[in-house]
Amino acid sequence: MTGFETAGLIERAKAITLRPDETWPRIAAERSSPGEIITRYALPLIAIGPVAAFVGGQLFGISMIFATYRPGLMTGLGMAVTAFVMGLVSLIVLALITDWLAPRFDGQSSRTQAFKLVAYSMTPGWIAGVLGFIPSLGILAMLAAFYGIYLFYKGANPVMKVPGGRAAGFTAVTVIGAILLNWLAALLVTSFTTAVSNSAYSASNAAGDTVEVTLPGGGTLDPAKMEDAARQLEGLASGERPKPVDASALQAVLPASAGSFTRDKVQSSGGGGMGALAQATYRKGDREVRVQIIDIAGLGAVAGAIGGLGVEQNREDANGYERIRTVNGVIQTEKWDKRTSTGTFGVQVANRFMVQAEGDADSIDDLKALVGAVDQARLAALAR
C-alpha cells in the first residue's frame, strides 16, 4: 500500500510541516514512484502559488515602486503558466541534483527517494504561495521556503541515508546547485511559455485534526476549502476540467445600464479551457467606468479557497483608501482616490468569477452599483 492511499494530501502536508521528525521515516519507507509523487502530491500544491498570484494580480494589480501594474487576462494566464511550469521544473531539477549528490556525501543514490525528499521539503513554500493573493504579503512565502531548507536537512538522513554529520553540507551544496541550474532552466521555460501565451494566452499544530495558517492583519486559511481545492486541482492534473463558459454568455450578463450609467460598448474574448473575459464601458456625462467579468474556469478551485482566508486589510490617507475584506466567505476589494475621483470595486462570484468596476465616478457607490447590477445568480448558473 502506498503512502498516497494511507494519507490524504492535506494530512501529509500537515504532518511533514509540523512533525518532520516522525514523518520523514514513514515517507522513506513508503512504496511510491516519482510519477505518483509528482501527479498526486506535488502538482496540486505547486498550483497554489501561480493561481493565487494570478487572482491577486487581476484584482489588485502588481505593485511596483511607483506604480501598480494590472496584467490583462491573457498576460496573467501566461504568467501563471510560466510560474507553474517553473515550479515543476524546479522539483525535477532539484530531485536529480539530490540523487546525484547523495553518494558523494556517503548517502545512497535513489531517484524515487530523491523525489520524496525534495517534494515533501518544498511543501511549506508551495502552501505559503497562497499569500501571493495579497501582493504585499508575497515576501512571507519566501520565509516558508527557507523552512523547507530546514526540512530538507532533517530528511537527508532518513530518506537518502546521508550521515548526520554530513547532512548540513549535503543540504548547502544541493541548494547552491539548484539555484544555478534553475536559473538556466528559467531562461528556457520562460521563453517557451511566453511564446505560448503570445500565440493564444501559523501553522499552528494542535492535538486535534485542524491546522490553521494565521496571516498578518488577521484571518486564517480554511483547511476544508483547501482540501476541496486540492481534489479539484488533482482532477486538473489528470486532465479533468470544468466546462468552460462561453465568452458570449458572459457578455450577455453585463447589464445595459446601472443607475445613471449607460453601456457604451461591450466586448468579450475566450481563453479556451482556461477561462474567458467580458467587459463593457459605461458612461455618465464625462464619467467613464469599465466593468469586467473574468472567468478563471479550472483555476477557481484555489480562488474559492482564498475566500476562506478572512483577510482584512485597510490603508487610508488624506488622498484616499484601499481595502480588502471578506464578506460571507467572498473577497471584496475597494480602492478610491479622492484627488482624481477614480477607483475600483470588485467581488468574487461562485468561486469562479471576478466582477470588477474601475474608472472615474462621482463616488465609490457608483462603482458598487455597477457591480451590483451584474446578475450574480445568472453567473452562478453558468458555472454549473
Describe the structure.
With 384 residues, the protein is an alpha+beta fold. The protein folds into 2 domains: 3-200, no CATH class; 247-383. It contains 15 helices and 13 strands. Helix 4 (34-46) crosses helix 11, helix 5 packs antiparallel against helix 6 and helix 5 (48-60) crosses helix 13 (300-306). The chain is elongated and about 75 Å long. The protein starts with a helix and ends with a helix. The model is unreliable at 1-7 and 187-223 (pLDDT under 50).
The tally of structural domains comes to 2
End-to-end gap: 36 Å
Count of discrete alpha- or pi-helical segments spanning 4 or more residues: 15
Q: Identify the quaternary structure here.
A: single chain
Overall mean pLDDT: 74
For the largest beta-sheet, the strand count, sense and barrel status come to: 9 strands, antiparallel
* Outline type: elongated
Cα radius of gyration in angstroms:
23 Å
Which spans have pLDDT < 50 for at least 5 consecutive residues?
1-7, 187-223
Helix and strand composition category: alpha+beta
Number of strands: 13
At a glance:
With 384 residues, the chain is of the alpha+beta class. The protein has helices spanning 3-6, 9-18, 20-29, 34-46, 48-60, 73-101, 111-121, 123-127, 139-160, 167-199, 223-237, 247-253, 300-306, 364-372, 376-383, and strands spanning 62-63, 68-69, 204-205, 211-212, 257-258, 261-270, 276-284, 287-295, 313-317, 320-327, 330-337, 342-349, 353-360.
